[in-house]
Amino acid sequence: MNRKRPSLLSALCFLSFIGSGLAFVGYFLASLFFEETCDIITTYSSWYSTEQLSPLYFTFLMALYGLSVVSVIRIWKFHRDGYFLYMAVHTIILFFPAIWIGWSVFSATNSIFTVVFMGGFSLFYRHLK
Q1: Lesser CB count within 10 Å: N end or C end of the chain?
Q2: What is the value of pTM for the model shown?
Q3: What is residue 80's three-state secondary structure?
Q4: How far apart (Å, rounded) are the C-alpha atoms in residues 50 and 35?
């Protein structure tokens, strides 16, 4: 069966794949080079201490972004399970840092992008089987 993929759905998948793929690699490197990552965080951010972070924190985020890549591939192939996986994973990604570290790290910018992409994928739910 050969279906025509709407251009906006293609763009959402492409951007999500790139973003989640880069995040996967970034969190992999952050967990692998944890000490260096902590040095970078304290040097270039307003954080004075990274005591609440651990390699497990970055590994968990890496796994979530890996699942996000899988979900986008499933959406690209018109599978509804990809849509539900994407929604679940990105809801967890949105709140995980606030739960692990504290609500002071909750990101409004991340929230906006998450809602925009979730809304965009929801527009094409009927195209998925």
Answers
A1: N
A2: 0.92
A3: helix
A4: 10
